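yo, General secretion pathway protein GspJ is done. seq:
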Amino acid sequence: MTARQSSEGTAGFTLLELLVVLAIFGLMSVLLSGGLRTIGHLVAGGTDRLDRASGLALTSNFLERVLADARPLPTGDGEDAVAFDGTANGLRFVGPPPVYLAPGAFHAERLGVEDEGGRHRLVFRAGALGDARQSRSVLLDGVGAARFAYFGADVGAGRPGWHDRWPGAWGLPALVRLRITFADGSSAPDLVVAPRPAEAGFQ
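structure:
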């Protein structure tokens, strides 16, 4: 074999071969890019679910603490009533200040969903009785709706059951249930908390 033939046998890629290689690289880039986007969406979705689960756990623990200390405080008007007012949209009650506030007199406390610039949040507010100032804590963000229900026997009723409304004249409910639907349409497990029994009075 001559030197000319050897040189021709070791020549570089042809134009067709280069185009095929470039097409393969382009296809691989598309596949890898799509795979990375999919992985990114999965990671983001997993992070959102973990954040939501963590928020629900913290909210449940917080409600257990504050509602378990709801007090049957007489209203002072001579009626047999307590400072507790529950509706389907939220509730107001009286109890000792939350642990993150300085110890002191009883606090008026409120829990419900608030609309802040189009975002709905489950918000807890607390302030000393007779003081207009209140602390504010966001318990859950991205809430679509929150519905409260109260279990017990209303005044003059026989068998206990769930109610959308619980006035203080009935004392304290045996259970408070919070049912949350998020803005994306997903639902959380019901949070059920038992307030302090009305007959327990002050400790």
